Amino acid sequence: MDLEKDFIAYIRKEHLFPVPGKCLIALSGGVDSVVLASLCKVSGIPFGIAHVNFKLRTDESDKDEAFVIRLGKQWEVETFTCSFDTRSFAKQNQLGIQEAARQLRYNWFESIMDSKVANGYQYLLTAHHADDNAETLLMNFFKGTGIEGLQGIFPKGSKLMSQLVRPLLFAEKKQLIEYAEQHQLEWREDASNESSKYLRNFLRNEVIPLIQQHIPSLQQNLMGNISRFREVHTLYSAYIDQLRKQLLFEKHGEMMLPVRKLLKTPALQTVLMDLLKPYGFSPAQIPDIIQLLQGISGKYVDALTYRIFRNRQWLVITAIESKSAQHFLINANMASIEYGGGKLQLQELPYKQQLTALPEVAELHSPGLKFPLLLRKWKQGDYFYPLGMRKKKKLSRFLIDQKRSMSEKENTWVLCSENRIVWIVGMRIDDRFKITDHTLTMWRIRWSPPE
Prior knowledge:
Blueprint: H1 3-13, E1 23-26, H2 31-42, E2 47-53, H3 59-75, E3 79-83, H4 86-92, H5 97-115, E4 123-125, H6 130-143, E5 164-165, H7 173-182, H8 199-212, H9 218-247, E6 249-251, E7 254-258, H10 259-263, H11 268-276, H12 286-292, E8 300-302, E9 306-311, E10 314-319, E11 327-330, E12 336-339, E13 342-350, E14 361-365, E15 373-377, E16 383-384, E17 393-394, H13 395-401, H14 406-410, E18 413-417, E19 420-424, E20 428-429, E21 441-448
Parallel strand pairs: 1-2, 1-4, 2-3, 4-5
Antiparallel strand pairs: 6-7, 7-10, 8-9, 9-10, 11-15, 12-13, 13-21, 14-21, 15-18, 16-17, 18-19, 19-20
Helix pairs in contact: 2-7, 4-5, 6-8, 6-9
């Protein structure tokens, strides 16, 4: 392999950046990044170097930094260095050491790119290579990330880091070492790479060499799989985009999914994982969400900022604690809830035959309520049994009889237990939930209009 020729060929094949283009190289001092800088130098690509001292290896970390500074002077290129107390950062942010180092590193690189626009740095280059890509594929496979993670490391960064470029993904580690030895390059060895404490090192040092004893072409096979997985992902993404248009509907700021269509969807678990990922739901929650399709109204699953629950023939995705939401779930332990139509205060009391005859107060037979209750706006087709009546009445007719204006109708909310309306909020309770001679405990719910 002619590494110098293949380096330029790969950059052009993947359209990584125009040659020459001024680049900032993330230089650790190890053989990978030193070879990357050397290839840029012989290829006539102008570059600067940036080095992070994570203070994780005491004197060795400081020696790495001094080595990089010396290389910068030797190459006569602009050199940036910084130091972080990585362990303290990891502890304060409840992160693993590797994740903390990654965040610190890339945040600092971005700040350099942003602050040095005048110097013309257009791209940030890292020295990830084919071995890193194979390890990433295996890590993601074992972690269960799905087809998304099986695509490995991309030659270009994501939208959030669009300047990030990885021009060595075509080369194996052994080829980089051979090139460094042939050109008598100096580099620093990181002793921590020999430890199998971290998953990546465990795969690199123990698992992959063991498999290669039986499958010598393992590296090439994994690279071929990555290429195929990316093509599969392209087809899969087109299918998911099509389903997203068929299954996800926005209504009043909430997302709705039809239960019947979902039940007929092939590969439902995988489809739901991708449809719900933007709302923060994890793969581990998908089985619980699928159970909602068979469940009764009112059950729900929470992500960090979103909740999904079933309401009749729909799954509803709503922002948690958002007053603009159109659906709210009320648990028995909630004392109050504020929503677009005002505020509800809830209290369970012993029944002492002292009722409040006010329309803004609902006093309900406790055993009849099944929590969580659902608070939502009324809709066409709703009906209830008005207090004192044994026949059901459409809510649309009830509102006409109450001489409600158009705006008042639009702002009418109902409280539901399972699929049954309990209370037209601020107006009338349902006869099926009234206090009876057998009532021992009751729920008193008081409505206050929005301020």
